[in-house]
Design brief:
- The chain has one domain: Roll (Nuclear Transport Factor 2, Chain: A), CATH 3.10.450.50.
- Helix content is 30%, strand content 30%.
- It has five helices and nine strands; from the N terminus they run αααββββαβββββα.
- The strands form two sheets. Strands 1, 4, 5, 6, 7, 8 and 9 form a seven-stranded mixed beta sheet that branches.
- Helix 2 (32-45) runs antiparallel to helix 3 (48-54) and helix 4 packs across helix 5 (173-179).
- The longest helix has 14 residues, at 32-45.
- The protein is globular, with a radius of gyration of 17 Å.
- The protein starts with a helix and ends with a helix.
Length: 183
């Protein structure tokens, strides 16, 4: 019977959005770095609930200038979108892929003032790999910047997220998000 319960917990942990945390292993949002580490974990486990914890209610995503006025999979990119659109696109990504690998250069983050109510991560490199069940991949490479806000008991949350890529032919994180916006 213990083996069945352990297997059930393992299966639930592997399903998108169903990450089960053992008691005492609450997500840590005590610092901006903790929040961005949790964002990486949310993507790699495809966990809607962890993703939601990292987002501020007043969230805004800024697309790279090169993506403005592009139409991607029926979605016309105007420059920014809000938390509702971010959440919808992210959930669609999580549901569409078999796994995700995300590398954020968290080592490039500057120290933050613990007494501050906001933190600017400055630009950091990212590599986002979406793996599909048919063995194909989508890869986004570029730089991103986060503005985080200390929301007291809710911890540090992402208030603004900017995307940038400069290599011709690369796909940006924002482009991939826009692709999945309408799902």
């Amino acid at each position: 019977m213990k083996n069945i319960a352990a297997l059930l917990l393992l299966v639930l942990a592997l399903l998108p959005g169903c990450l089960v945390l053992p008691e005492g292993d609450e997500p840590n949002l005590d610092t901006p770095r903790d929040t961005l580490k949790l964002l990486v974990e949310a993507y790699e486990t495809r966990s809607d609930s962890l993703f939601d914890l990292t987002m501020d209610d007043d969230f805004i995503f800024f697309f790279d200038q090169k993506d403005h006025n592009r139409t991607v999979n029926g979605y016309h990119i105007t420059g920014t979108w809000n938390l509702h659109e971010e959440t919808q696109a992210t959930r669609n990504i999580f549901a569409a892929v078999s796994s995700i690998d995300l590398v954020l250069d968290l080592d490039s983050m500057a120290q933050f003032d613990a007494g501050s109510s906001s933190y600017d991560s400055d630009w950091m490199d990212y590599h986002l790999y979406l793996h599909y069940s048919d063995a194909s991949d989508s890869v986004a490479i570029g730089q991103t910047r986060f503005l985080l806000k200390n929301n007291g008991e809710d911890g540090w949350q992402i208030e603004q997220w900017e995307d940038f890529y400069n290599t011709p032919g690369d796909i940006s994180w924002g482009y991939l998000k826009a692709w999945y916006r309408k799902g």
